[in-house]
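Proteins fold reproducibly. Next comes a concrete instance:

***
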Amino acid sequence: MTSYQINLEGDVLKVRFGQPAMGDQVVRDAAARLDEMITLGELAGGKLLKIDGPASVAVSYLIAHKVSHLYSAIAVFDPKIGRKGYKSFIVAVSHTPAYKIGELIETDEPHKDKIYPKVVICGPSQSGKSCLREGLKQAISNIAGAPYPYVITACPDGEGAWYSEAAQRDLELAQQLKATYKAKFTPEFATKAASWVRNANTPLNIIDVGGRITDENRIIMREATHAVILSGKNEKIPEWQEFCESLGLRIVAIIHSDLEDKEDVIESESPVLTGKVHRLVRGEDVSRRGMVQVLAKVLVGLGSKQ
């Protein structure tokens, strides 16, 4: 199986990640598939091409390079905007006055009957939430038939989904970029992030929030459906439990993060996953840790219970 899958359904280019691979291989596989589709006449050009599905920044640039000259306009699906329960696309490329850059194209493709899991990873600062988030993304991608884990970074700390892989290659550069992108956690940001969570309609959504119990986090987290509590200090867990319960979130995991230990511990898997995860360190691949593997299966299982 290729690392990136592309198919045309009507005027919609359906894209998604396939077999796990590094970014350079994903780009090569995507390029090969697009070239094949163009050669076979599947991507013959036209007035409008809509693109639906997750893509890395590099793959997004590649797709634009390969197809933007074939179509008068290209619009990209964004799960965080538009009418609730329906897919909306943003016009990102236009060679015609018929479509304006930034214009929303709303569709009648419904998403009313299914509420997809929106799992917030929360807990005190310095517990390793962002490391866990990236480990989960990789672990879930390795589960056959699992949905793509759509990550919403709902904290303006500059550490987006790109950070983990960048840190594995060049930690110093990743830290410099994080410092550049870091912004203040304002009520305006909280309101915007809450709308991202509220409108997310992909099969599995993971939300990374700040490490304090604040009004801003309350605004964001109340739009979620489930919670994973991660804490480096056991005494902090009860207050986060109370916070999540006050927002009506179903807690699916309570995990102690131990930086110094050398192995994970699974204490219970049902009804709530509990135990310990060790050494959540930036720049390390934590996707094969025992706790991360079990938690990945728990989150994938949430979708089948909806």
